[in-house]
């Protein structure tokens, strides 16, 4: 079976494609991690972000939401200087801002997962693309999610970033239909 072309030639990207990408998750910590990493990617490649993922996990205590929400400006400056993360100050600050917004959602809804999955009525959107070239950069769903996240104070959650996030956490399955990792082909 032919699989998605985008990860080929990079071991880390291939492992991410095979083991994580488009796999539905409702794990609060993982959802926050992916939201943070997708925000860090804005304007960069996913390959760069994946290469720094372990440093991000170390710096942000494995994306512990409470820890990240309580970070001080001094702690964020220290992370910028001492860890192998993307050094963009606003992106680093967005981890704290977004953690605080996640906590607000958790108090309003049952969970962050419940809030997110309500945009798809709890079901993954399973696309049937024939090639990687058909996969859009954004969708009506990502525009809707982006607007709501921004309204709630989230940063670095534009429609394209939101679409990548939806793929990352399996709310959208964009494996090409012939890929063994497409929902229809996984056993």
From TrEMBL:
GO biological process, one term: base-excision repair
Residues holding Zn(2+): 4, 17, 175, 179
One of the record's GO molecular function terms: DNA-3-methyladenine glycosylase activity
Presence of the UniProt keyword Zinc in the record: yes
Tree of life domain: Bacteria
Pfam families noted in UniProt: Adenine_glyco
Key words of the record: Metal-binding, Zinc
PANTHER family: DNA-3-METHYLADENINE GLYCOSYLASE 1, DNA-3-METHYLADENINE GLYCOSYLASE I
Protein name: DNA-3-methyladenine glycosylase I
Organism this protein belongs to: Planococcus citreus
């Amino acid at each position: 079976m032919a699989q998605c072309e985008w990860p080929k030639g990079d071991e880390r990207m291939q492992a991410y494609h095979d083991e994580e990408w488009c796999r539905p998750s409702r794990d609060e910590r993982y959802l926050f991690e992916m939201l943070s990493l997708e925000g860090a990617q804005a304007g960069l490649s996913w390959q760069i972000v994946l290469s720094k993922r372990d440093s991000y996990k170390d710096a942000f205590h494995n994306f512990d939401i409470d820890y990240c929400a309580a970070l001080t400006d001094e702690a964020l400056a220290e992370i910028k200087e001492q860890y192998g993360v993307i050094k963009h100050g606003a992106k680093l600050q967005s981890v704290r801002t977004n953690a605080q917004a996640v906590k607000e959602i958790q108090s309003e809804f049952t969970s962050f997962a419940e809030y997110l999955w309500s945009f798809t009525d709890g079901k993954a959107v399973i696309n049937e693309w024939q090639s990687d070239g058909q996969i859009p950069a954004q969708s009506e769903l990502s525009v809707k999610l982006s607007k709501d996240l921004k309204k709630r104070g989230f940063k670095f959650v534009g429609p394209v970033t939101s679409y990548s996030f939806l793929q990352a956490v399996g709310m959208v399955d964009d494996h090409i239909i012939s890929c063994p990792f497409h929902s229809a082909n996984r056993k």
